[in-house]
Amino acid sequence: MKFTVNRTAFLKSLSDVQRAISTKTTIPILTGLKLKLEARGLTLTGSDADISIETFIAADDDNAELQIEQPGQIVLAARIFSEIVKKLPEKTMTFEVTENYQTEITSGSASFTIKGLDADNYPRLPEIDAEEKLEFKGDLLKQLIGQTVIAVSTQESRPILTGIHLVIKEGELLAVATDSHRLSQRKIALPAAQNANYDIIIPGRSLNELAKMIPEEADKISLRISENQVLFDLGKTTFYSRLLEGNYPDTERLIPKTAETSIEFNAADFLAAIERASLLSHEGQNNVVKLVLETAVQKATIYGNSPEVGNVEEELHFQNLTGNDIEISFNPDYMKDALRSFGQTTVTVAFTLPLRPFTLVPSEDHEHFVQLITPVRTF
């Protein structure tokens, strides 16, 4: 096996594939990177059994400057190989496998030899035979992931909550995540897939890694689903993830349908105020801030109190306040995550009772996106 390639182009493909490679896997060969060279180009594969990523460098890709001398395949220790490639002195590198899987990497005057493994022992990628595929705009899929993955649980005690629940039916995709303290739900229309019908749970970690790989200019990303795997096709790169097994909780009933009090904020201004209030709450034992709404005098005040350090009080700017007076305490980190997901827009925050979950929705489009936060009992 022997080829020469542009180092920058190769590194970009390598960094994508490395997202799937873990040092903590129970299958030793999966700490490695698989390279397969054929007449049509070079395929790089990485996997940790949960996520698998495969990317292709075509022989006719001008940027890659790939020159194929002898086809073959090898598995190399991913971490050390990546470090070597990053440190090579010239813009091109030559890669050659000799006897007993010895692999020589040369660039300019630098030459490294590392030992590889037999690629025939590398696990096969999942086969997804589903004919039906759904298509998304890259930026829309990236946004949907960013808006929901923040509410995914990091606790392995309830594995089902470490995923994002996707329900596809009647030409619409519903994505929901909750860690039982907060919830994020986003809907998008799928006009081209009226007949598709799926109910799946994808690990939040998988979607987080996928979002990092979606290029800004990605026009179209396709999705295919099998019994226990999902495949995203990004063009030159394919991204596989296992699906979580089990039934996701019925989250629809958690979202209040009515409100006793509602207020409109500019999301960026409200976020800045929460960040100021949390400066002190983070220093204390209890990471809590309190919001007090007084409708009669049209006043909204945020309080942060840390007995060990001090307190903060700030009167908030808002657009509209209606309903009953309310005092409500919450984790400011949850509120910051929620507000960041809205970007530069106006949000409506709706409350029922001081100890009941409250919602945040974009004022212009409250049908398709909602964040829900459970308050904190402070007495």
Automatic annotation (TrEMBL):
Transmembrane segments: none
Subunit-level organization: Forms a ring-shaped head-to-tail homodimer around DNA.
UniProt keyword Ribonucleoprotein, yes or no: no
Similarity annotation: Belongs to the beta sliding clamp family.
Span of the signal peptide: none
Task of the protein: Confers DNA tethering and processivity to DNA polymerases and other proteins. Acts as a clamp, forming a ring around DNA (a reaction catalyzed by the clamp-loading complex) which diffuses in an ATP-independent manner freely and bidirectionally along dsDNA. Initially characterized for its ability to contact the catalytic subunit of DNA polymerase III (Pol III), a complex, multichain enzyme responsible for most of the replicative synthesis in bacteria; Pol III exhibits 3'-5' exonuclease proofreading activity.
Any one GO molecular function term: DNA-directed DNA polymerase activity
Source taxon at top rank: Bacteria
NCBIfam families, sorted: dnan (TIGR00663)
Protein's name according to its UniProt entry: Beta sliding clamp
Every DNA polymerase III beta sliding clamp N-terminal domain range: 1-126
GO cellular component entries: cytoplasm; DNA polymerase III complex
InterPro entries tied to this protein: DNA_clamp_sf (IPR046938), DNA_polIII_beta (IPR001001), DNA_polIII_beta_C (IPR022635), DNA_polIII_beta_cen (IPR022637), DNA_polIII_beta_N (IPR022634)
